[in-house]
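Hey, resending since the last one bounced:
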Amino acid sequence: MKFNMKIKDFAAADMNVADGLYHFVVTMSDNTQCRLIFTKKPDWKLIGVNRLLTVPCPICRRDYYCNCMSKYAEEFEREVLDKELISSVL
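The structure tokens again:
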């Protein structure tokens, strides 16, 4: 199944400036929520994607942990960096 959801909401959740780790919670256009974990050493890079268990996975329809969103990490990173979402919440 093709995953073509776009980021609807982007919010800062947690940060550890000393280690350069930042957690953001994103809400997708279908109301799926994910936690994106970025590092800033020296540039922003996405290092982890976790789906929050608010709704079933839009890809595999599981209602428990799966790794489907990790397959689309490059698309998440590209959208966040292209739209400069990080600078808008920090």
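The chain has a mean pLDDT of 91.

Sorry for the duplicate.
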